[in-house]
Design goal:
- The chain is an alpha/beta fold.
- It folds into two domains: 85 residues, no CATH class; 175 residues, no CATH class.
- Helix content is 47%, strand content 16%.
- It has a six-stranded mixed β-sheet with strand order 1-2-5-8-11-14, with helices on one face. Strands 3-6-9-12 form a four-stranded parallel β-sheet, with no helix packed on it. A four-stranded parallel β-sheet has the order 4-7-10-13, with no helix packed on it.
- Strand 1 and strand 2 form a beta hairpin.
- Helix 5 crosses helix 7.
- The two termini are 21 Å apart.
């Protein structure tokens, strides 16, 4: 295995679990990833509460905004939010005399349970890699979504698949750096006056990008499976569906499935970022020439 790939994966295994337990708390701001947050009664936060991959339960007062991404905001009896309450892929649920001085915004898509679609990469970006991911129903949902993506944007999926196979190490590195950047970017949008309305669109783009990346990997895996089976002609949709199903089943395996899910997520999302949603061609020349020996008359260069 490529030494660079080993180093990047080891770095991911160190950094992402740390992000999954990341919490910055205090009277000024509360920012957490992968955990729920509860602000008790008589507590006061002078700025913002930001939760990524978890829910926020507010019983006290928040001077500015409360934002939850891939989670709900529960405003219980006596809660006061003097700014906005924004739940992306979740809901703002108010009880009793809770107050929101700004706007209450819930950005969700129908009754689809996004938390079950762990393999698709559209939920809980920083969930732990130590258990199997999701359920068979989640895998089947991903296959269905993959077919829709292949129908809507086949060229984008092809471009992302090309990037993932051209240089997997570089794609994984892009994925790791992109995940790390999501947190400060979200915080900047929360604390800026114009950023709050952009948060739903930003995370929707992330969710779509992660899904496109998973579909692209499914396409690559499906083509490999069909070649090994000596199958005749096949179309993109069939290959993507078979590959997504196979990869999804792997993610259901405890421990091994968690590692596989982490690998797929980094590689797929990184390929999306690197290729700009498949719009920028990734040349295989640099990757194919890496490590080659060029011999000229009278000279040998490595």
């Amino acid at each position: 295995m490529d030494k660079r790939l080993i180093m990047v994966l080891l770095g991911a295994l160190i950094i992402l679990p740390l992000l999954a337990g990341f919490t910055v708390g205090g009277d000024d701001n509360i920012v957490t990833i992968g955990k729920d947050v509860t602000l008790e009664a008589n507590s006061f936060v002078t700025n913002n509460v930001v939760v990524i991959g978890g829910s926020a339960t507010i019983r006290g007062q928040v001077q500015e905004n409360v934002v939850a991404v891939f989670g709900n905001i529960y405003l219980e009896q006596g809660a006061v939010v003097r700014g906005d309450a924004v739940a992306v892929f979740g809901s703002v649920i108010r009880q009793g005399d809770s107050q929101v001085y700004g706007e209450s915004v819930s950005v969700d898509i129908g009754s689809l349970n996004w938390r079950d679609l762990r393999f698709s990469g559209v939920t809980r970006p920083f969930q732990g890699a130590w258990r199997g991911s999701g359920s068979i129903w989640g895998v089947l949902w991903v296959v269905l979504l993959g077919l829709i993506v292949m129908w809507v944007a086949p060229r984008a999926v092809e471009g992302v698949a090309s990037a993932a196979t051209t240089d997997p190490v570089k794609a994984i590195l892009y994925g790791l750096l992109s995940y790390v950047a999501l947190v400060p970017l979200t915080i900047v949008m929360v604390i800026s006056l114009l950023g709050i309305p952009l948060i739903p669109f930003f995370w929707l783009a992330v969710a779509v990008g992660r899904l496109v990346g998973q579909v692209a990997l499914g396409l690559v895996a499906g083509r490999y499976i069909l070649r090994q089976a000596s199958s005749g002609g096949h179309n993109q949709a069939a290959a993507a569906a078979i590959g997504l199903l196979a990869l999804g089943v792997i993610t259901l395996i405890p421990v091994a499935g968690g590692f596989a899910s982490l690998f797929y997520s980094l590689l797929g999302f990184g390929a999306v970022v690197w290729s700009r949603f498949g719009r920028r061609p990734v040349s295989p020349v640099a990757a194919s020439q890496r490590g080659t020996v060029v011999v000229e008359e009278g000279n040998t260069n490595v």
